[in-house]
Amino acid sequence: MLSPLRFEPAYAQPALPVAAASVIRYAAGEEIFAEGDRADHVYELVEGTVRTGRLLRDGRRQIDAFHFAGEAFGFEAGDLRRTTAEAVGEVTVRIVRRRALSDLAARDGEVARKLYHLTISGLQRSQDHVLMLGRRSACERVAGLLLLLADRTGEAAFDLPMSRQDMADYLGLTIETVSRTLTGFLQEGLIALPTVRHVELLDREALEALCE
Amino acid sequence: MLSPLRFEPAYAQPALPVAAASVIRYAAGEEIFAEGDRADHVYELVEGTVRTGRLLRDGRRQIDAFHFAGEAFGFEAGDLRRTTAEAVGEVTVRIVRRRALSDLAARDGEVARKLYHLTISGLQRSQDHVLMLGRRSACERVAGLLLLLADRTGEAAFDLPMSRQDMADYLGLTIETVSRTLTGFLQEGLIALPTVRHVELLDREALEALCE
DNA sequence: CGAAGGTTTGACCAACCTCAATGCTGGTGG
DNA sequence: CCACCAGCATTGAGGTTGGTCAAACCTTCG
């Protein structure tokens, strides 16, 4: 459904074409940056999964995107962060100074072109997300997320990197609805759930049909 | 709530810095481009309002964004359109060859920087939209749209350029819910609705409070 | 004046949410 | 090694929001 946001395949050389960069590890759940922070760096995800999203005052949370190994994240239009990024499980990132990258882009048109392409792909992913949240049922949303995760690895069986709460906050649902929908799929034979964090797609056709 | 997506204030010179461009008018409801078309041009909206969005096979529609005078639209990552653009009322646009613009961006770093900034602003608008659709109630969504439209002109009283159906398809609601929500606001004294296409915000505070 | 298209309103319904209880799993310490 | 605990996940019952279907109500336009 959604194509991954990356310059190159994940196994290729670093996505962000800047040499001077430090590598940092974050523990599960740790905050990488928060809404309101100065946006002085951009990130390339070496290993693990990152969620970016926003929090309303009353505690409602919306996850904008999950980012996977090989993808870049943390781009902002202004000086301040509008979203929060957190590690989903253990995470390794390369950190690049935003200034260094924009200087490089100013000198090297090819870098600028890639950066442009990167953000426009992010925009298209966000538009897919809008369609999902605006016009799809709970079943369709959950099926969409499972297919998104499957396409990432190319395998029909895969580990879920995130909790039910993360899935719910990405899909605009509650944790209970996600859970009920998954057991529904299970009972219909569309998926297997050998453990709570491992999924196998048994009937990909049917899941795809749910996404139109 | 959402800052307009534009290079310059609407009254300034053309947003897209390319001279060779034709100007075209579209009648109300007319299609400017459609999902699946080749994406050979980008557009600058001279006058009127444009909606961009997607259609599911079963007829469900989701509007991604409304574009207003001074804004640019029609950027794509790939060769083909993923969204459809239609005139909301009478519309005048400048059309620029995508190729001409990318050539210019390759030569002129400042142009490239502006294009980048333009798309990243679009991404942030889309993320606001995601938050709206994922975690806000019907009241909050309608209030958000009214404030968005008010901020565009800077006036508390303004014409609604779009139909109830367009509002519903942007907000992920039905036309009936939009209508009921507006009459709710009316009865609470939050807005006046002298005609079906004209709104006055009487209690901006209260509407903003609904948006957190 | 009549027709057409958009809008509003009403009654009813379904999907999803809320709240609460129960179940599972993985880690820790006796 | 096992018992216990904490934290997620699942399940259930019942409530709410927003959707559906249908009718009435403008406006605008011929």
TrEMBL record, chains A, B:
Gene3D superfamilies: Jelly Rolls, Winged helix-like DNA-binding domain superfamily/Winged helix DNA-binding domain
Every HTH crp-type domain range: 136-205
Gene Ontology MF terms: DNA binding; DNA-binding transcription factor activity
Ranges of residues in domain Cyclic nucleotide-binding: 26-122
GO annotations of cellular component type: cytosol
Keywords: DNA-binding, Transcription, Transcription regulation
Entry superkingdom: Bacteria
Alphabetized InterPro entries for the sequence: cNMP-bd_dom (IPR000595), cNMP-bd_dom_sf (IPR018490), Env_Response_Regulators (IPR050397), HTH_CRP (IPR012318), RmlC-like_jellyroll (IPR014710), Tscrpt_reg_HTH_Crp-type_CS (IPR018335), WH-like_DNA-bd_sf (IPR036388), WH_DNA-bd_sf (IPR036390)
UniProt xrefs under PROSITE patterns: CNMP_BINDING_3, HTH_CRP_1, HTH_CRP_2
PANTHER family with a match to the protein in the record: CRP FAMILY TRANSCRIPTIONAL REGULATORY PROTEIN, FUMARATE AND NITRATE REDUCTION REGULATORY PROTEIN
Name of the molecule in the record: Transcriptional regulator
